[in-house]
Amino acid sequence: MTPTITAFAQSPDRGQGLARDMRVRWALEEAGQPYEVRLMSFKAMKEPAHLALHPFGQIPTYEEGDLALFETGAIVFHIAERHAGLLPADANARARAIMWMFAAVNTVELPILDFAYGKFTEGKKSWYEERLPLVKDRIRDRLGQLSTRLGNAEWLDGAFSAGDLMMVSVLLRLKPSGMLDEFPVLAAYVARGEARPAYLRAFAAQQAVFTAGEAAGTR
Ligand code: GTB
After folding, report:
1. Which of 7, 14, 123, 126 is the most exposed place for a label (fewest CB within 10 A)?
2. Measured between alpha carbons, how far is residue 62 from residues 15, 59, 113, 166, 201 in Å?
3. pLDDT bucket at 213, cuts 50 / 70 / 90
């Protein structure tokens, strides 16, 4: 059964691939699975039909037959469990790949989101500029630790896995800030992720939504 995911009809990132549908698209492309996309306006995301799928009124969601999921970590894990290519067969290696998925969203993404959302939600507060170096240093701490662990390796634990997919997706959010370039090991790691054919297909698909919106004059 072909799954349907939801994505922004008008992504605020203007097709840069920073919204979270991108990680789900990427996982489906790595797994070689076709999928359909239902585009959502910000208004529709807060209406009962969508809230029944996603209690927080966000994208992406994932529907496949009777199954409806929200939360990208859970969606990518579901895809990785059911299709080859994203989780190793060896039980211990599989557990470590899952560990890296959690590390991406629970340890590395937290300070990055503080930085990314802070600008919108707190940017006009008197203390914003004063707090910013502290927020950035928290990110740098995590990036330094991650960079040390990755070292000369291509991926976090052997072959490319869902752990790398989630970690690269999280790190990509930093790209516009230039902070990633302070950590050449991580910049190269992210670039390896972005060069994967599955990533490129996913990126093109989400960018096409933006391009079509521009052509139709809806932006
Ligand atoms: N933890 C959830 C998950 O991983 O699935 C978080 C989902 C989430 O934050 N969804 C966002 C959303 O629906 C879109 S991706 N926001 C609307 C709302 O909450 O009302 C976050 C995002 C938004 C914009 C950019 N950007 O413009 O660069 C990047 C990422």
Report:
1. 126
2. 20, 9, 23, 17, 19
3. confident
Looking at this protein, which amino acid is placed at residue 60? P
Write the residue with the smallest CA distance to atom 5 of ligand 1: 71
* Mean pLDDT, range 19-45, rounded to an integer: 98
Of ligand 1's listed atoms, the one at least distance from the Cα of 45 is 20
- Ligand 1 center–CA 90 separation, angstroms: 33
State in Å: Cα 61 to ligand 1 middle.
11
If phi over 0 gives left and psi between -120 and 50 gives alpha, with beta otherwise, what is residue 14? Answer: left
Work out the angle between the directed axes of helices 72-82 and 91-103 (0-180°, nearest 10).
160
Query: pTM of this prediction?
Result: 0.96
Tens of pLDDT, residues 91-141: 999 999 999 999 999 999 999 999 998 888 888 888 989 999 999 999 999
